[in-house]
Amino acid sequence: MKKFFAFLAVLALPFGIAAPARAGTASPAAATPPYHVVRPGETIKKIADFYGITPKQLRAWNAIVKPNQPSVDGVLNLAKPLSPLTGWRSWIENVTPGQVNWDPAKNCPVPPEDLRKVWVTYIDFYGVAHPGSIVVNKAIAARTQSVFLSLYRMRFRIQGMSPMTVNAPYITDYGTVTAGYSCRLIAGTKTVSQHAYGLAIDVNPVQNPMYRGTYVESGTEVTFMTRWAYRRGMMHAAGAVRAFTTNGFHWGGRWHTLKDYMHFSPTNK
Ligand SMILES: [Zn+2]
Predict the structure, then answer these.
(1) What is the pLDDT of residues 123-150, one digit of tens each?
(2) What is the Å distance from ligand 1's center to 85 Cα?
(3) Which residues keep their CB under 5 angstroms from ion ligand 1?
(4) How far is the CA of 60 from the centre of ligand 1 (A)?
(5) Domain ranges across the chain
(6) Helix axes of 55-62 and 44-51: crossing angle, nearest 10 degrees
(7) Which residue of 10, 63, 193, 225 has the fewest C-beta atoms within 10 A of its own C-beta?
């Protein structure tokens, strides 16, 4: 559902100017620390032994307090992180019509006053924490906060959230953004998408593709269609998906004809 993120590109600029500048925003490509994606059955001890480090180091580099174990789909630093994780913060703002590209002629089902911008702390692909925002229906604003708190505690990584200009200026493809509200139809249909109600969230669209039978969106990386793999940003039922399902969301990865691994909605649509 990438093309629909185009409008977010327009929104990102004013958000970026308003948002506080943060450390660690330079392109991290030169120094991506080594990491490990947690698979089912793994423990701190198992992972530490495998890499020849101590459990104490692994806990310290990932701010994991004893006796907590890592979560499936979590990404652990295997060296001292570039910058230590910040505390998790979240707040909710109203949105202006301009911020959501409001156009009365489009007959969007939910007015801007029923939408909220939810700010959360998230960990990017390089292990750096940022404030990111997502626009959702006010009815799910609180549970959206809970979801992102769970993802943060899992040490799950998100490639990018708005404002991209601040958090991930090295990303130019807005189809990679984790986002919610978008006034649009479901691709290839005349049905209004749950995103148009602010009742759906897409997470790491590149790593969690959508496809219907043999139809695959252009640009989809085949490697991410192999869902048994555990790679940075991928979601699995035993892992990051639980952050959503324990907060009343359903997962598009459980659908049959259409597989939408990035998509979560409380309406299961
Ligand atoms: Zn979606």
Answers:
(1) 999 899 999 999 999 999 999 999 999 9
(2) 29
(3) 200, 202, 263
(4) 36
(5) 2-20+86-265
(6) 110
(7) 10
